[in-house]
Amino acid sequence: MNTRLVHLLLRTESDVFVARQRAREVAAAVGLERQDQVRLATALSEIGRTLFTDRGGPAATAAEVWFGVSAGKIQVEVVAIGPSQADQLPSLGRLVDDLTIDDGPTTTVVRMSRRIPAGGELSEARLDRIRGELAASAPRSPLDEMAEQNEQLLTALEETRAHRDELAQLNAELEETNRGVMALYNQLSGELEETNRGVVALYAELDERSAQLRAASEAKTRFLANVSHELRAPVTAVIGLARLLDDPESDPLTEDQARQVQLIRGSAADLLRLVNDLLDLAKAESGTIQPDWSDVDLRGVFSQLRGTVRAMTTGDVELVVVDPAPPAEIRTDEVLLAQVLRNLLHNGLKFTAAGEVRMAATRAGADWLIQVTDTGIGIPAELHDRIFEEFYQVPGRAPTGATGTGLGLPYARRLVTLLGGELTVASEPGAGSTFTVRLPVAGGDGTS
Asked: Coiled-coil annotation: which residues (predicted)?
């Protein structure tokens, strides 16, 4: 030990009372709490009684006890002279922080320690003062120590009884809480069961409504297909008859009649375009369109569209088609892809009075991004989703005077989805629009 405070010599079992008293005094002097004082004193008392008691073999003849302070702990060392008693020593692990036993043929050394509370650092001056006080105090008689021990025992029993009463009170409160929890659980279980029945009924109603919507959608699709098919022949006939009337080899028409024939031809052409759009949309919705997957060179598609769409441009609008850098292959349906891009180019030209309509493609990882950008009137953000609804048209008249059916963009989006991609728009009023077609390079059929 680095700093010893008290040394005791134990020769008889009665000296154990003195050791117990000294242990309590030293513990109190260095700042241990009362319960820790009692624990340390009890541990030393148990060791002393064990060493000096004949338990089927010879007991120790004498023992020395040192009390000291080291490394923030109160240290107690007991050196017993006599036969080995280590196997008889009780388990004191709950009473002290550290316990070691060195057992030899003629001596048994027991070392134990208890931590001093934080902030209880002991200076040399205080240690000297503690030594002086301990040396000046006379040990009490075994009877007085026994009385003190009994008082401590009564105090411990009183604390135990108080803890027991407190525990009983807590158990009663816990039981009451458990009853409340069980009642609440039963109530919530009933409400949950009732809610579940309502959810089941709601799902059943939703399933029924979904079936009705599917039936209505299928009926609408059949209606559009049938009506479109039936209207195409008479409308085509009207256009043919109007062309015959306007033929230079036919009987000449007056100026007024020629104008009326042109109106008939224009209206019939618009009607035929609407019929064709309806028929295409009906095919897409019914699932009858099956892509013809093949390896397609985007440069060829762009070249074809550059030639066919350029005829629609006016002097104030320039059509710019930028060929993608080779290799520009994609697995898709060439006819359907060309139809989508043609639709987007027509749409851009229709809403652009001056500037340009540009189409370009870039590779983005496993996808191709094909963008059609115009410098037209633009679309408000709140209408970005609505323009892909059937028959919806942005309010206001196209600056070029062209008319539409409101079916081109919905049909284009369905075709892009059918090809395994997506069609999105970015636009704002006065800043033009950019339609982006994202398609997988490997194609929607999952082959490479």
From this structure: 143-187
What is the rounded CA–CA span in Å between residue 115 and residue 32? 8
Please give the distance of CA 344 from its chain centroid, rounded to a whole number.
Answer: 39
Contacts with 27 (C-beta within 8 Å, 6 or more apart), sequence order: 36, 37, 40, 41, 74, 114
Report residue 259's pLDDT band, with 50, 70 and 90 as the boundaries.
confident
Task: Tally the domains of the chain.
Answer: 3
Q: Torsion-angle region of residue 39: left (phi > 0), alpha (psi -120 to 50) or beta?
A: alpha
The answer on 119 and 153 residing in a single domain is no
The whole-angstrom separation of Cα 94 and Cα 249 is 123
56: left (phi over 0), alpha (psi -120 to 50) or beta: left
**Which tokens belong to 433?**
């629009």
Name residue 76's beta-bridge partners.
67, 112
> What share of the chain in percent tops pLDDT 70?
79
Residue 10 lies in a domain: yes
Choose between 306 and 55: higher pLDDT.
306
Do 330 and 357 sit in the same domain of this protein?
yes
Answer yes or no: is pLDDT of 222 > 90: no
